[in-house]
Amino acid sequence: MNSKSIGKILTAVDYSKKSLEAAEFALLIAKNMNSSLIIVNVLQTEPWLYGKHAYEWGSEDELDKAYHKEKERIEQVLNNIKNNAEKISVTTRTEILMNAQTNSIASTIVEFAENEKVDLIVVGTRGASGVKRMLLGSVASGVVTYAHCPVLVVK
Fold first, then answer.
1. Which CA distances in Å does 15 have to 62, 106, 122?
2. What is the distance, to the nearest Å, from the Cα of residue 139 to the centroid of all Cα atoms in its chain?
3. 36, 31, 11: which is closest to 109 by C-alpha?
4. Largest CB tally within 10 Å, which of 14, 60, 62, 148?
């Protein structure tokens, strides 16, 4: 692959230090390669939002409020990265991908990257729920295994 073929980069973030380091690395690559950057977060939702019944422990309104609060929280993270990109003249777009808990986060990232025709995916080794003894988190491992394009894992 030559450097001209990296037109679009995707980085997936949560609140973890490793994902934010991966986003910084993706910004540097995008700047150096004159690439655009898509910054995504996968928000896990209850399966009932996809056609099943709500759980007994939460009303629809209570769960909607919880998701709205979580979306606002992650939007702050995404906007911070986007602001850093603007400072170095990198074109960015942010997306929050809603994903039922019954679906894999990695498959959601890979499917989105394929649909967007991304040339490179940059992820951290472990996310917010990472287990320290694992070399590679399950999301990063899944993305590496199934992505249609090169994946850079930031350790």
1. 23, 16, 15
2. 10
3. 11
4. 14
Q: What DSSP character marks residue 133?
A: T
Question: 65: which DSSP letter?
Answer: H
How far apart CA 137 and CA 128 sit, in angstroms, is 10
pLDDT along the chain (155 residues), means of 10: 77 92 97 97 71 55 78 94 97 92 89 98 74 61 95 94
DSSP state of 38: E
3-state SS class at 1: coil
Longest dimension (CA), the chain: 54
Reference 10, options 111, 100, 141, 145; nearest CA is 111
**φ, ψ at 113 (rounded to 5°):** -60, -40
Distance (Å, rounded) from C-alpha 77 to C-alpha 36?
18
pTM for the full predicted model: 0.84
Cβ–Cβ under 8 Å, residues 99 and 105? yes
State the Cα–Cα distance between residues 38 and 88, nearest whole angstrom. 15
d(C-alpha 143, C-alpha 120), whole Å: 11
What tokens were used for 86? 């603007």
Token pair for 126: 């472990």
